[in-house]
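TEACHING EXERCISE
Course module: macromolecular assemblies
Task: Read the component lines below, then compare them to the predicted structure of the full complex.
Student: A.B.
Group: 4
Components provided:
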Amino acid sequence: MTLLAGRRVHALTLTELHEALSRRGVRASFSSVFRAVEHLEREGRVARVDLGDGRSRFEAAGPHHDHLRCESCGRIEALPRCPVTVDPPAPRGWYLHRHALVVSGLCPGCARG
Amino acid sequence: MTLLAGRRVHALTLTELHEALSRRGVRASFSSVFRAVEHLEREGRVARVDLGDGRSRFEAAGPHHDHLRCESCGRIEALPRCPVTVDPPAPRGWYLHRHALVVSGLCPGCARG
DNA sequence: GTCAATGCAAAGTTTTTGCATCGAT
DNA sequence: ATCGATGCAAAAACTTTGCATTGAC
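Instructor-supplied answer key:
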């Protein structure tokens, strides 16, 4: 949980999480990590996010926020505030209750390079 | 292309596209569909979108639009207009140039059921 | 003949499951 | 003994590639 709640590290993939745990000396198989995250997700303590790179990422559940993603290095950050207008013009009949926004471009490092 | 440009059908997966083509009498292997789409994507005529359900979807390239997705039946539609404010409050240093928004909830059919 | 398009099968990724084992109560 | 947690390997789902063949020019 501490890992997933880190302020700097956002939305880790299972592999990243597994490696990060190993580095910290936590010996757990990939399956265990998978199942732990699955469990935490069901409990509502962890949220799965999909940033469009083809794999699921996980982060500590919390207040809504959107994501920034660097198209060059893959770096991920949370957007400081949500730029989606509260009243989306939904086609009639739809009942909408959530959204996921990924803004992409170049992070400071890659934009300079 | 005609299929991918349809107004009703948005963002087909490779499998859906393959099946749709078969139904229309176009006999092409899955690989061929994959490579055709890959080619069209490189040409900029087709755009890949990821709506968070774990597989890539493809649609005709065109003016920006975001997506609606029904969490119950998977139905997908384009949002009539983009509810993202033009000037996202990006952290300093980032150079942003695109976004992908998926609004989800229940489609008219599933909301009623 | 040449070169691109095609089909099939196989490999690569990532996610998920089966199953036997280990551990605490 | 029981019940959940664990590890390993295998299965699944999707995407991508290798390679031999086919087809158009």
